[in-house]
Amino acid sequence: MKRLFTILFLCFIIVVAEAFSQTYLYSYWIQFTDKNNNPYSLDRPEEFLSERAIQRRIRQNIPYSSNDLPVTPAYIDSIKALGIPVHNISKWFNAITTGYIDPELLGQIYSLPFVVKPQINGPKQVISGINNKSATEAIEYNSWDSYYGVSGDQIRIHDGHFLHQQGYTGRGIHIALMDAGFLGVDVIPGFYDLWNEDRIIGTRDFVNRNSNIFREHAHGMHVLSVIAGNIPYQFVGTAPDASFWLLRSEDVDTEYLIEEDNWVSAAEFADSAGVDIISSSLGYSVFDDSTQNHTYEDMDGNSTRISIAADIAASKGILVISSAGNQGGRKWKYITAPADADSVLAIGAVDSLGIIAAFSSRGPSYDGRIKPNVCAIGNGTYIIRYNGSLGIGAGTSLSAPVITGLAACLWQANPDATNMEIFSAIQESSHKFLDPDTIYGYGIPDFNLANIILKNKYDSGPSELVSLQVFPNPFSENINVLFYSGSPGTVFITIYDIAGKITREERYDLNDMYNEITIGNLSGLSSGIYFIKIQSENSSSIQKIVKL
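^ that's the sequence the OP posted. Answer follows.
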């Protein structure tokens, strides 16, 4: 009863504050008309881009454009001269987000000749207001014994272990995580390797410049653990050797348009810092202020600022990965921004059996494109908890980092690939690539196949034949051979025993991409070791198989 009274009393205080306070402050998005009189030049990109960002553009043959130029400093100074605090700056949109200001200042802002009409992008702030909103996550613990520990399924379902076994663990790939906070990352043992090897490149808070992101919300810590957590034989992330920028753009206490604008500024910073991948386990559709709400019609990739910014980031050579959203069982149902952007790899959620999660947001985008793009385990994803123990979480917030980490490994294996070639290979490797839908998208990616697709492109020309899988192995009666071919033609499949004697030989006509062939009636073979050879006109591949 005492607790109920306390809650009612707090509610009364809030009501009284709303009723009697006359001072309301707002945050605004202020866009400028141009970048005139700008001291920066596209001829001197080193003045506003890092060397790593410049090299990323050179490697992918991406030219500089006017949206790379910073906002004209004189415009920002003019805003500050009015006593208006500047919260964040966006060079891509040529705009700023203000701190909370009195609307009476709008007249002075309007008078500036280089200002487009301001737009409210945050909540109304009452000087005496109280905010008791919080966020929690229910997590359970479970485990089994293997090298990957409890995280094995979320790696093996994508054949990610094949990349790891070849030494591709994300080393040298820079990932920017956009999130709500990274509680405990500086002290949790599962992240010690990141610190010991200087792979936390840096941090920024675009919500509150004075905060410590390691004392904010745990959501980003959970996301980071899926990628980079490393406790051998207990828990191993999908890219345990990658490097990270940890960027806070989300305020869990509220939901307003300003959080999208924070994301824009964080993405621009990530671009300038030279990251390879932006991973965002955030999504926006409806807000605390309904006048700021998006509609399904806005999910066309070109209507919300955050989605436009995500596409701009991709145009700079960054692979942008986003959770699809957790709206599948709700009235909204559809993907949320920025997952709707056409150059964003939107990730839905399945369980360890590959069955779609009820909460996973559905597609298509409003303009009819396949969304989500692909799926990963997000229903029963193993994570590191805030106290360092291991647990289970659910949400596309966790399926997105599964793919992010494996994409980093794939890019390490194929450093000459562009961001969109990595994007395409992931889609093409997915199990529903030839029959996509609005629930799974292109399906569950196979990163071993994605690697083969890219190796085929860069290492051996269009006619190369590469064996991917022979299964089941060991076998008893039938075996299936799955492989990729860069061109149509004829292939011979031969099975030899350990002495080199041919026990079976078949001829098949190839498709020009994915081929799955079943060889049956093998029950008469004696138990033991055999070799299967796949021979095309230009190449061959041999794999060991075992007969039970």
